[in-house]
Every structure is written in structure tokens, then in C-alpha cells.
Amino acid sequence: MPGRGELTGTIVGQYEIQDLVEDNTIIQTYRAVQRSLEREVAFQVLSPSHRTDPTWVMALKSGAQIAASYQHPHIIPIMDMGRNADVDYVVTRLLLGRTLRTHIEKTGAKPVQEAVTLVRQIADALDFIHSHGGYHGDPAPVNIIFDEWGSAYIADFYLQGYLRATTPNQVAGVRRFVASERMAGEPPTAMSDQFALAGVAYFAITGKYPWERDAPVRVFDNLVPPQEHRLDIPLSVNAVLMRAFAFNPADRYPTTGEFSRQFEQSLSSSPTHVFISYSRQDVEYVTALRAYLQVNGLEIWSDHQIEHGEQWFNQINNAIKTCAAFLVVMSPEAEQSEWVQKEVLLAKRYKKPIFPLLLRGEEFPLLIDVQFASAVGGMLPDPDFCRRIKRAVYGR
After folding, report:
1. 385 φ, ψ (degrees, to nearest 5)
2. 100-267 architecture in CATH?
3. Exposed, middle or buried, 289 (CB in 10 Å: 0-12/13-18/19+)?
4. CB contact burial 42-80 (16+ within 10 A = b; e otherwise)
């Protein structure tokens, strides 16, 4: 709901200020009526604590001028700028949707196709900026706004104005989306914008921030895999994010648009992960098995990735429903496990290719009709076992 700021109910020049719609601690955005044209607009001013700071006043003006120099369908239009009664202001199109940050905080992760559309639109705007020799500097969720039809716009170029007024080496912006090199004091570039957009993509599909606010190292190895937050996300998206989050900017995608295209393709790919079902008594063997299969080019999902809780069964069910193949490690303990038995039944219900691996004891009665491979004595399966799984997963 709109709030009440200190300008609510006042008149600034030709603008009747109605209510406060957004406050990010630096910029306050009000809904206003432009009396000369009788239309609603967004009226932006610095927060009271920044309003008399000459550096931020310069940043407000410079940022508005930078944004106004770009004409793009996903860059928020600047409509006016001025000063009245000691208040510096910028007027933009009023977007009735929420910021991405507010949307995610209120409703959670976006549906995959909506996330893809969002990333494509913002990537297109960033590529346009980069093609003109510029950068945004802070394409974080708080600076991405939706209109009433769900189209996304990049807004608030004021950080770029601030960096121009101070020094581009200063670490500024929403820190959970600041690139590794920026944290080390390097100036913003098209590559740091790409890094931030990858963080936006992660935030959109998981509903979670990619890093803690002040995490000193921003590399994919320090990131919680998206699948731990949402099991319907294909594992193929990880490699795309990994490249965009590369520590060395030269290792990222050549353009932000290329990242967007690869992100979309990875999310629309068929499931390729193999689900491993096992008993807790066999966890040491399964750890070695998982590493062995990954080295052999298979993507592995096992329930060590999720926490026990009310949603445990739903997550297991979804992981099996979306897997490309099902592998079960057979042992007496696994045969007695209620969960392993349920997982096998789910795999059968969803008609998944099942690959039993006999570690100890005898084959399961439930799988008497399925060929099994031997791992007796703790041996890892032979290359033929991996080839058979690959054929089921990749069709080759």
C-alpha cells in the first residue's frame, strides 16, 4: 500500500504530490499529478537525509540526464527535471507495478517463463546501454520496475551519476548484486552489469538473494545451487550462471544478451538429472558414487540437498517426477527403508528408467523385473553402467 511521506499533499511547481510509493533510503518516489497535462506521473526526490548533500544532488541530475539520453522500450522514460522551493526533482513515467524486490518479497519466486521474459527485457536494455559505451552500474531488483501489464524497466541511473560525481572505483550499489571486481575496487563495466543481472536471474527463479550482503568473494562455488531452493529448475542452468558469475570478467559471456539467451535455453531444456535413492547407512558409498557419476558426465540429484521438514515428500516427489533416470542403491537397510520404497514406487508411477545397483544383500522384489548391476564389496559401477544411464538421459 502507498505510504505517506513528508511531501504528500504538497504542490511542487506544476505537480500535486499524492502519496509515497517507494523509498529505497536514497530516492523517494511519489505518485503525483502533472496539472498542465492532467496526468499521473512518478515524482522522484532525494530522501531528506540526502537532499542537501551537493554530491547526491549532482548525482540525481546527472543520473536523470544519463537515463534521458537512452530511448529504449525497457528503460524508464524521463519526462522532466527541475528545482522548486529548494527541492530538486525528476519526473518519470508512473509504473503501477511493483519493483522486482517488492514483488519477490511479497509473492516469492517468479514462474520460469516470467523470469525468462524479465531477464530478456532487462538484458536487451543493458545491451543497448553497453552498445552506446555506457553501463548502468546497479541493475539490482530494487531498480527493476514493472508496469501494469508485467513489462520490466530498468530505472534509477542515479548510482552512475553518483560514481561520476565521486569516483567510479567506489564500491556502491546493492551489495548482494555487486560483482567480484567491483568489490575489489574496480570501476563498473558492461561485464559487472552482466554479473548483477545473473544475480537478478537467480533471485527471480529462487526468491532468494545470491549472496550475503558483505560476502567478500562472489563466485559460483560459494553460491547455494538454485535447485536447493526450487526443484523444478534444471541443473543445466547452473553452468550458465557459473559463467556469468565468473571471477574474471573476461570469462563471462561476451554480451549480456548472450547470457540471457543461454539462461532461457537452459530453463527450457529437458530434465537431465539422475535421482539417487539410498539408505542412510550407505551414505559413504553414495557420496563416492555421486562423484564418480558426475566425473562421467551425469548430473546427480539426491536428497542430501534438501532439509527434512513439512515439504520433504513434496520435494522428493517433484525431484523424481522431473528426473531423467532413477538409480537405487540396493542393500538390506534400503529394502527396509519406507522412504526408499516410496521413492521406487514413485519412479515406477512416473515411468522413469530405473537402474538398480546391488551393494549388499539381494535385489528388491519391487524391482525383480529390472536388470541390476553389481556394486558388491563397495565397487563403483563399470563404464557400461554409466553408458546405459547416459543413453536413457541423453538418448545416445
Report:
1. -60, -45
2. Orthogonal Bundle (1.10)
3. buried
4. bbbbbeeebeeeeebbbbbbbbbebbbebebebbbbbbb
Q: What angle do CA 261, 71, 104 make, to 5 degrees?
A: 50
SS3 category, 34: strand
Question: Degrees (nearest 5) of the Cα angle 302, 303, 304?
Answer: 95
For domain 11-92, give the fold.
Answer: Phosphorylase Kinase; domain 1 (3.30.200)
What is the rounded distance in angstroms from the CA atom of residue 341 to the CA atom of residue 111? 32
Model pLDDT, residue 222: 74
Report which of 130, 110, 275, 315 is spatially closest to residue 201, judged by C-alpha positions: 110
CB contact at 8 A, 240 and 112: no
Q: Which CATH superfamily is domain 273-394 in?
A: Toll/interleukin-1 receptor homology (TIR) domain (3.40.50.10140)
Helices 312-321/338-349 angle, 10° precision? 40
Instruction: Dump pLDDT digits (tens) for 116-156.
Output: 999 999 999 999 999 999 999 889 999 999 998 999 999 98
Per-residue pLDDT reduced to its tens digit, 9-54: 999 999 999 999 888 788 899 999 999 999 999 999 999 888 888 9
What is the domain partition of the chain in residue ranges?
A: 11-92, 100-267, 273-394
Q: Do the beta carbons of residue 182 and residue 189 sit within 8 Å?
A: no
Q: What is the pTM of this model?
A: 0.71
Output the furthest CA–CA distance in the chain (Å, rounded).
85
Count how many Cα atoms sit within 13 Å of the Cα of residue 268 in the half-sphere of its side chain: 11
